[in-house]
Design a protein that fits this description.
By secondary structure, the chain is α/β, with parallel strands linked by helices. The chain is built from 14 helices and 18 strands. The strands form 4 sheets. Strands 2-1-3-6-7-9-8 form a 7-stranded mixed beta sheet, with helices on one face.
């Protein structure tokens, strides 16, 4: 039995990977003497399977059961001929299986321990949450808040940065995590966390030096040297993952991996100390590489084998508005250079956003057609529709969301939709 049990998941992807949030919270609790179990793949559980997990992990001494919601999406019943599931953003409750399922789960938890609290965190936790099943909603980074909650429930210590919202849920709001020493924070995987995983997340930095208009990530606009974990700690975490679990592949958790050559140099020097050559996947800015082609070889030497390019748009005018207005031809040429130099030793994925300010539908089609005929030779790509939300519906908001009318958007319930021809089409 455990002091805390945390459920997590990445519901809508064919790739199986671990979202670090729940594991980071568990690690924080464990360092302070609390026992904590993390249960992954939440959306795959039936109600009976869920009850079995609860019966084996929750006792009268369990302080709380938590849900890490960042990558939760609802399972929508559909008639897909291939038998696949359809996913949509969670709109009712916090669990992918829906509010009725969630209520039955919470009721079962209460039969095990009536005083056990239900805590939610992650990006879908916000200050105006209205869900009678939830006791605590943690806003922003949770390392400080979760210890405050655990100590409050166990020892009745004061709960800092907290208040009750209109629906009776206790909001613990510590968005900037000021009292958490991220730079020197250590992380250790336990056997139950890793299982048979061959790829693990590695958090090297937080925040981004840029402030793109569509981005709502916290800590945007940081300075170059802010929020980068110490090289010795990164070395210990990677070497330990390899020694204990044989893991040499990592996906880097960093809002923009190549936003600083200083950070890349730190990681490059750290890797030289390891007894193995790691391989990485990371979010990277294509325009920065296009401005400095020497980064191609440096990134490869570090071990980057999977580029996730948040390109968003190749339309010059739209790019300038959102903070990404670099030359279209030079960016495409950089993709070709990487392909020619390293072939299939690396993979490049591009992410694009439909409905950004002032990009006509013909511009989007042109980019799509170039991707389809390999004129833009990415290995894979995806187009997302732009979603903008009211301030009260999210813990953090983007410039486009905060000032949507200035960019040509109009309001519809909790979502703000673009009124251009691109959106209509």
């Amino acid at each position: 039995m455990y002091d805390a049990v945390i459920f997590t998941d990445v519901t809508d992807t064919v790739t199986i990977y671990k979202a670090i949030g729940a594991y980071k919270i568990a690690n924080t609790l464990r360092q302070q003497g609390y026992s904590c179990l993390v249960v992954d793949h939440l959306h795959a559980f039936t109600l009976e399977e869920f009850k079995q997990v609860i019966d084996k992990s929750v006792s009268v001494n369990t302080l709380f059961v938590g849900f890490s919601t960042t990558f939760f999406n609802s399972i929508i019943d559909s008639n897909n001929t291939d038998g696949s599931k359809t996913y949509r953003p969670v709109l009712s409750g916090v669990m992918p299986q829906g509010i009725d399922f969630e209520t039955q789960v919470v009721n079962h938890i209460k039969t095990r321990n009536y005083n056990c609290k239900i805590v939610v965190g992650g990006t879908k936790a916000h200050a105006n949450l209205n869900d009678k099943n939830i006791d605590y909603s943690v806003i922003g980074y949770g390392e400080v808040s979760i210890l405050s909650i655990a100590n409050h429930l166990k020892n009745d210590t004061p709960l800092v940065n907290s208040y009750k919202n209109l629906y009776g849920i206790t909001i613990v709001d510590n968005r900037t995590n000021d009292n958490y020493d991220f730079v020197n924070s250590k992380f250790e995987w336990e056997d139950l966390d890793v299982g048979n995983a061959k790829v693990l997340p590695l958090e090297i930095a937080r925040g981004c030096i840029f402030k793109c208009k569509f981005c709502s990530y916290p800590l945007n606009g940081k300075q170059n040297l802010d929020f980068i974990r110490h090289s010795d700690i990164l070395y210990e975490e990677m070497q330990s993952s390899y020694d204990k679990f044989g893991v040499s592949n990592f996906y880097i958790l960093d809002d923009t991996f190549n936003d600083s050559t200083y950070k890349l140099d730190i990681l490059h020097n750290t890797i030289k100390r390891l007894t193995f050559q790691p391989k990485f996947w990371a979010y990277t800015r294509l325009d920065l590489i296009a401005q400095n082609n020497g980064l191609i070889d440096k990134l490869y030497e570090i071990g980057l084998r999977g580029f996730y390019f948040g390109i968003e748009t190749l339309n010059k005018r739209t790019g300038l508005i959102i903070g990404k207005g670099f030359d279209r031809a030079k960016q495409i040429n950089t993709i070709k250079q990487i392909r020619e130099r390293y072939g299939n030793q690396v993979t490049m994925h591009g992410s694009f956003i439909l409905g950004l300010p002032e990009e006509p539908i013909d511009s989007m089609r042109y980019t799509f057609n170039q991707l389809m005929d390999s004129s833009i030779p990415l290995h894979t790509f995806i187009f997302h529709g732009l979603n903008l939300y009211k301030n009260e519906a999210v813990p953090f908001n983007s410039e486009l969301g905060k000032n949507f009318k200035d960019y040509g958007y109009t309001e519809l319930n909790t979502c703000l939709l673009y009124t251009s021809d691109a959106a209509d089409e």
